[in-house]
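Local shape tokens:
==================
===
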Amino acid sequence: MKAFIVLAVVIVAVSAEMCRETRDCRTTSCVSGSELHCVNHQCTCTTAASGSGACTSADQCTGRCDNGRQHHCIDGHCRCTHF
């Protein structure tokens, strides 16, 4: 069982493209309507959040993101993560 858990962690770590900036994301691609951003050092697809969208931090983003996605403030606009 421990070997299975270790293997699962390794697979997730390898499959997630790491980044410092969005331009570091080279292999991750997003579906139409989504934008690629570097969020918490991981290449992440995001979609526009509901509401006015203007922000300087994620806690200023209101409304909800579908399916338990989290709000992020990216370039002054509220976005929802999308994996």
